[in-house]
Amino acid sequence: GKTTMLKAMLMRVAEAYLDSPDEDSRIPVLIRFSEVTHGDTFFDMVCRAMGGIPETIVRKVYDEGRLTVTLDGLNEFTVEQGYVQTFLRGMFADINSDSNRYIITGRVHEFESIKRLVKENIKTPVYELQGVTASMLEDYIRNLKLGAKDTADLLSLLRRPDMIRLLSSPLNFSTVMTV
Q: 0.85 cut: is pTM over it?
């Protein structure tokens, strides 16, 4: 779902750029963390994602603040964990433009493990999606107005730890609720 969402978002950015390629339009870039190899820098990845455009050109558009960079799959690195930290620190050092936009996706657990690293090192504002909590799910179920018995049955399911973990994924929750 995360990669599909990013591709749809980048398609809109690309369409806007093609409709009006002026100095305010953005160029979409999709970087997959699964493709990072030893020695890669942020700009190596941007150049590759842009079809091998020379770094001098990439840096020019970057310095102009014209990129929307999506970094997909924080949980999908294929290099060892030690290099992940090295790559991310280097990437955050390279990301020094307040004008470009960045979107980083990953599973909640991986994001939680590097959140401090992100917030300490990235100079641009960091936004994150709010996690789904048990109380949010309970409020949602109560507002469905299903009737007392159905509401009580669903709420009792939510009190099971395995169900909370399962339903805290918005995709899983919406799937269960449509059945």
A: no
Answer yes or no: are the C-beta atoms of 70 and 29 closer than 8 Å.
Answer: yes
Are 132 and 141 spatial neighbours (Cβ–Cβ below 8 Å)? no
Distance CA 176, CA 7 (A): 25
DSSP 132: P
How many angstroms separate the CA atoms of 128 and 116, rounded? 13
pLDDT in tens, 102-154: 777 776 666 666 666 666 666 655 555 555 677 777 887 888 778 899 888 88
The DSSP line for 111-172 is: HHHHHHHHHHH--S----PPPP-HHHHHHHHHTT---HHHHHHHHHHHTSHHHHHHHTSHHH
Q: Are 70 and 103 in contact (CB under 8 A)?
A: yes
User: Three-state SS for 67?
Assistant: strand
Q: Please, are residues 73 and 52 in contact by the beta-carbon 8 Å criterion?
A: no
H or E, element range at 29: strand 27-32
Using CA atoms, how far apart are residues 155 and 88, in angstroms rounded to an integer?
41
